[in-house]
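Page 42, continued from yesterday. The earlier attempt failed because a stray header line got pasted into the input along with the sequence. Redoing it now with the clean sequence only.
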Amino acid sequence: MNSILIISANTFKETIRNKVLYNILLVAGVALFLSMAFGDLSVFSRAQVMADFGLATMSLTGLLLAVFIGVGMLGREISSKTVYSVLTRPVTRESFILGKFFGLFATLMMNFALISVVFFIFISLLGTSVKPSLSWAVVLTAAEMAVMISAAIFFSSFTTPTLAAIFSISFYVAGHLNNMIGIGAEQQNSVIWRTILKLLYFAFPNLDHFNIRARVVYELSIPEGYIAGALLYGLLYTTLLLSLSILFFSRKDL
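This time it went through. C-alpha coordinates are written below.
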Protein backbone atom coordinates (compact mmCIF):
# COMPACT_ATOMS: atom_id res chain seq x y z
CA MET A 1 0.00 0.00 0.00
CA ASN A 2 2.86 2.34 0.86
CA SER A 3 4.50 1.77 -2.54
CA ILE A 4 1.23 2.62 -4.30
CA LEU A 5 1.01 5.93 -2.44
CA ILE A 6 4.64 6.79 -3.24
CA ILE A 7 4.22 6.02 -6.95
CA SER A 8 0.93 7.96 -6.98
CA ALA A 9 2.59 11.00 -5.41
CA ASN A 10 5.54 10.87 -7.81
CA THR A 11 3.19 10.48 -10.79
CA PHE A 12 1.15 13.45 -9.63
CA LYS A 13 4.26 15.60 -9.21
CA GLU A 14 5.61 14.56 -12.60
CA THR A 15 2.28 15.23 -14.31
CA ILE A 16 1.78 18.74 -12.94
CA ARG A 17 5.25 19.65 -14.23
CA ASN A 18 4.25 18.54 -17.74
CA LYS A 19 3.71 21.50 -20.09
CA VAL A 20 1.07 19.53 -21.99
CA LEU A 21 -1.17 19.72 -18.92
CA TYR A 22 -1.16 23.52 -18.95
CA ASN A 23 -1.82 23.61 -22.69
CA ILE A 24 -4.86 21.40 -22.11
CA LEU A 25 -6.06 23.71 -19.32
CA LEU A 26 -5.56 26.72 -21.61
CA VAL A 27 -7.66 25.11 -24.33
CA ALA A 28 -10.37 24.31 -21.77
CA GLY A 29 -10.40 27.92 -20.54
CA VAL A 30 -10.66 29.30 -24.06
CA ALA A 31 -13.50 26.88 -24.87
CA LEU A 32 -15.44 27.97 -21.77
CA PHE A 33 -14.94 31.63 -22.65
CA LEU A 34 -16.05 31.09 -26.26
CA SER A 35 -19.18 29.26 -25.10
CA MET A 36 -20.43 32.54 -23.63
CA ALA A 37 -20.08 34.22 -27.04
CA PHE A 38 -21.72 31.30 -28.86
CA GLY A 39 -24.72 31.61 -26.57
CA ASP A 40 -25.78 34.77 -28.43
CA LEU A 41 -25.80 32.83 -31.73
CA SER A 42 -27.92 29.96 -30.42
CA VAL A 43 -31.66 29.57 -30.08
CA PHE A 44 -31.01 28.35 -26.54
CA SER A 45 -30.15 30.56 -23.59
CA ARG A 46 -26.53 31.41 -22.90
CA ALA A 47 -26.68 29.37 -19.68
CA GLN A 48 -27.84 26.27 -21.57
CA VAL A 49 -25.09 26.63 -24.15
CA MET A 50 -22.57 27.26 -21.39
CA ALA A 51 -23.64 24.11 -19.54
CA ASP A 52 -23.41 21.97 -22.69
CA PHE A 53 -20.03 23.41 -23.72
CA GLY A 54 -18.64 23.21 -20.20
CA LEU A 55 -19.47 19.53 -19.67
CA ALA A 56 -18.23 18.63 -23.16
CA THR A 57 -14.99 20.53 -22.44
CA MET A 58 -14.44 18.54 -19.25
CA SER A 59 -14.93 15.26 -21.10
CA LEU A 60 -12.50 16.21 -23.88
CA THR A 61 -10.00 17.59 -21.36
CA GLY A 62 -10.00 14.27 -19.54
CA LEU A 63 -9.56 12.40 -22.81
CA LEU A 64 -6.56 14.55 -23.78
CA LEU A 65 -5.05 14.05 -20.33
CA ALA A 66 -5.45 10.27 -20.54
CA VAL A 67 -4.03 10.06 -24.06
CA PHE A 68 -1.22 12.61 -24.16
CA ILE A 69 -0.04 12.35 -20.56
CA GLY A 70 -1.18 8.92 -19.36
CA VAL A 71 -0.11 6.98 -22.45
CA GLY A 72 3.03 9.03 -22.98
CA MET A 73 4.21 8.72 -19.39
CA LEU A 74 4.01 4.92 -19.15
CA GLY A 75 5.42 4.42 -22.65
CA ARG A 76 8.28 6.84 -21.96
CA GLU A 77 9.21 5.07 -18.73
CA ILE A 78 9.36 1.72 -20.49
CA SER A 79 11.32 2.99 -23.51
CA SER A 80 13.75 5.02 -21.38
CA LYS A 81 14.30 2.09 -18.98
CA THR A 82 13.14 4.23 -16.03
CA VAL A 83 10.68 1.53 -15.04
CA TYR A 84 13.58 -0.86 -14.38
CA SER A 85 14.90 1.23 -11.48
CA VAL A 86 11.42 1.26 -9.94
CA LEU A 87 10.65 -2.44 -10.33
CA THR A 88 14.05 -3.55 -9.03
CA ARG A 89 13.05 -2.14 -5.67
CA PRO A 90 10.48 -3.94 -3.47
CA VAL A 91 7.70 -2.69 -5.76
CA THR A 92 5.36 -5.11 -7.48
CA ARG A 93 4.08 -4.52 -10.98
CA GLU A 94 0.58 -4.40 -9.51
CA SER A 95 1.61 -1.51 -7.24
CA PHE A 96 3.24 0.24 -10.19
CA ILE A 97 0.07 0.12 -12.32
CA LEU A 98 -2.24 1.14 -9.47
CA GLY A 99 0.12 3.93 -8.43
CA LYS A 100 0.16 5.32 -11.97
CA PHE A 101 -3.64 5.19 -12.13
CA PHE A 102 -4.24 6.98 -8.83
CA GLY A 103 -1.58 9.59 -9.64
CA LEU A 104 -3.15 10.38 -13.00
CA PHE A 105 -6.65 10.34 -11.52
CA ALA A 106 -5.56 12.80 -8.81
CA THR A 107 -4.23 15.10 -11.53
CA LEU A 108 -7.51 14.80 -13.40
CA MET A 109 -9.47 15.68 -10.25
CA MET A 110 -7.30 18.76 -9.76
CA ASN A 111 -8.00 19.80 -13.35
CA PHE A 112 -11.71 19.19 -12.93
CA ALA A 113 -11.75 21.22 -9.72
CA LEU A 114 -10.13 24.20 -11.49
CA ILE A 115 -12.36 23.94 -14.56
CA SER A 116 -15.47 23.45 -12.39
CA VAL A 117 -14.75 26.60 -10.38
CA VAL A 118 -14.40 28.65 -13.58
CA PHE A 119 -17.41 26.87 -15.08
CA PHE A 120 -19.66 27.54 -12.08
CA ILE A 121 -18.51 31.17 -11.88
CA PHE A 122 -19.45 31.71 -15.54
CA ILE A 123 -22.82 30.06 -14.94
CA SER A 124 -23.44 32.34 -11.96
CA LEU A 125 -22.41 35.41 -13.97
CA LEU A 126 -25.13 34.52 -16.48
CA GLY A 127 -27.68 34.81 -13.68
CA THR A 128 -28.31 31.07 -13.33
CA SER A 129 -27.87 29.10 -10.13
CA VAL A 130 -25.77 25.94 -10.12
CA LYS A 131 -28.31 23.12 -9.91
CA PRO A 132 -27.66 19.67 -8.40
CA SER A 133 -28.06 18.02 -11.82
CA LEU A 134 -25.12 20.07 -13.11
CA SER A 135 -22.94 18.96 -10.21
CA TRP A 136 -23.91 15.33 -10.79
CA ALA A 137 -23.03 15.73 -14.47
CA VAL A 138 -19.51 16.78 -13.44
CA VAL A 139 -19.25 13.76 -11.10
CA LEU A 140 -20.31 11.36 -13.88
CA THR A 141 -17.81 12.96 -16.26
CA ALA A 142 -15.10 12.28 -13.68
CA ALA A 143 -16.25 8.64 -13.50
CA GLU A 144 -16.07 8.42 -17.30
CA MET A 145 -12.51 9.75 -17.23
CA ALA A 146 -11.54 7.15 -14.61
CA VAL A 147 -12.56 4.54 -17.17
CA MET A 148 -10.57 6.36 -19.87
CA ILE A 149 -7.41 6.56 -17.74
CA SER A 150 -7.64 2.85 -16.93
CA ALA A 151 -8.17 2.15 -20.65
CA ALA A 152 -5.10 4.22 -21.57
CA ILE A 153 -3.01 2.33 -19.00
CA PHE A 154 -4.39 -0.97 -20.30
CA PHE A 155 -3.40 -0.25 -23.90
CA SER A 156 -0.01 1.07 -22.78
CA SER A 157 0.68 -2.17 -20.92
CA PHE A 158 1.10 -4.24 -24.07
CA THR A 159 1.68 -1.93 -27.04
CA THR A 160 3.61 1.14 -28.19
CA PRO A 161 2.65 4.68 -27.06
CA THR A 162 1.44 5.61 -30.57
CA LEU A 163 -0.82 2.59 -30.88
CA ALA A 164 -1.99 3.00 -27.29
CA ALA A 165 -3.04 6.60 -28.06
CA ILE A 166 -4.91 5.48 -31.20
CA PHE A 167 -6.61 2.65 -29.31
CA SER A 168 -7.58 4.98 -26.44
CA ILE A 169 -9.18 7.54 -28.76
CA SER A 170 -10.96 4.74 -30.66
CA PHE A 171 -12.16 3.33 -27.33
CA TYR A 172 -13.63 6.73 -26.42
CA VAL A 173 -15.37 7.16 -29.79
CA ALA A 174 -16.70 3.60 -29.80
CA GLY A 175 -17.95 4.00 -26.24
CA HIS A 176 -20.05 7.01 -27.24
CA LEU A 177 -21.34 5.24 -30.36
CA ASN A 178 -22.21 2.08 -28.46
CA ASN A 179 -25.95 2.73 -28.52
CA MET A 180 -25.85 3.15 -32.30
CA ILE A 181 -23.96 -0.13 -32.63
CA GLY A 182 -26.67 -1.87 -30.60
CA ILE A 183 -29.43 -0.35 -32.74
CA GLY A 184 -27.55 -1.32 -35.91
CA ALA A 185 -27.25 -4.91 -34.70
CA GLU A 186 -31.02 -5.17 -34.27
CA GLN A 187 -31.62 -3.84 -37.78
CA GLN A 188 -29.24 -6.25 -39.53
CA ASN A 189 -30.77 -9.07 -41.55
CA SER A 190 -27.43 -10.88 -41.88
CA VAL A 191 -26.77 -13.21 -38.96
CA ILE A 192 -23.00 -12.73 -39.35
CA TRP A 193 -23.13 -8.93 -39.23
CA ARG A 194 -25.67 -8.99 -36.40
CA THR A 195 -23.34 -11.25 -34.39
CA ILE A 196 -20.30 -9.07 -35.10
CA LEU A 197 -22.11 -5.88 -34.09
CA LYS A 198 -23.45 -7.49 -30.92
CA LEU A 199 -19.94 -8.63 -29.99
CA LEU A 200 -18.71 -5.06 -30.50
CA TYR A 201 -21.65 -3.75 -28.48
CA PHE A 202 -20.73 -5.91 -25.47
CA ALA A 203 -16.96 -5.52 -25.92
CA PHE A 204 -16.95 -1.73 -25.56
CA PRO A 205 -18.33 0.21 -22.61
CA ASN A 206 -21.36 2.40 -23.04
CA LEU A 207 -19.83 5.76 -22.14
CA ASP A 208 -23.17 7.46 -22.76
CA HIS A 209 -24.19 6.16 -19.34
CA PHE A 210 -22.06 9.01 -17.98
CA ASN A 211 -23.52 11.63 -20.30
CA ILE A 212 -26.49 13.50 -18.85
CA ARG A 213 -25.78 16.79 -20.65
CA ALA A 214 -29.13 16.68 -22.45
CA ARG A 215 -30.96 16.31 -19.13
CA VAL A 216 -29.00 19.23 -17.66
CA VAL A 217 -29.47 21.52 -20.67
CA TYR A 218 -33.20 20.81 -21.05
CA GLU A 219 -33.73 20.65 -17.28
CA LEU A 220 -35.11 17.11 -17.38
CA SER A 221 -35.32 15.00 -14.24
CA ILE A 222 -32.76 12.27 -13.60
CA PRO A 223 -34.33 8.83 -12.94
CA GLU A 224 -34.02 7.59 -9.38
CA GLY A 225 -30.98 5.36 -8.94
CA TYR A 226 -29.46 6.40 -12.27
CA ILE A 227 -26.45 8.20 -10.74
CA ALA A 228 -25.62 5.30 -8.41
CA GLY A 229 -25.97 2.80 -11.27
CA ALA A 230 -23.70 4.82 -13.56
CA LEU A 231 -21.05 5.22 -10.83
CA LEU A 232 -21.15 1.49 -10.11
CA TYR A 233 -20.83 0.77 -13.84
CA GLY A 234 -17.77 3.02 -14.01
CA LEU A 235 -16.21 1.42 -10.93
CA LEU A 236 -16.66 -2.10 -12.31
CA TYR A 237 -15.29 -1.21 -15.74
CA THR A 238 -12.31 0.63 -14.25
CA THR A 239 -11.57 -2.36 -12.00
CA LEU A 240 -11.79 -4.72 -14.99
CA LEU A 241 -9.40 -2.65 -17.13
CA LEU A 242 -6.91 -2.20 -14.29
CA SER A 243 -7.00 -5.95 -13.58
CA LEU A 244 -6.28 -6.67 -17.25
CA SER A 245 -3.51 -4.05 -17.21
CA ILE A 246 -1.86 -5.76 -14.25
CA LEU A 247 -2.20 -9.15 -15.96
CA PHE A 248 -0.62 -7.98 -19.24
CA PHE A 249 2.07 -5.88 -17.56
CA SER A 250 3.02 -8.76 -15.25
CA ARG A 251 3.66 -10.93 -18.30
CA LYS A 252 5.50 -8.19 -20.20
CA ASP A 253 9.16 -8.99 -20.79
CA LEU A 254 11.05 -5.98 -19.54
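Notes: Residues 2-251 form one domain.
Reminder to self: strip header lines before submitting.
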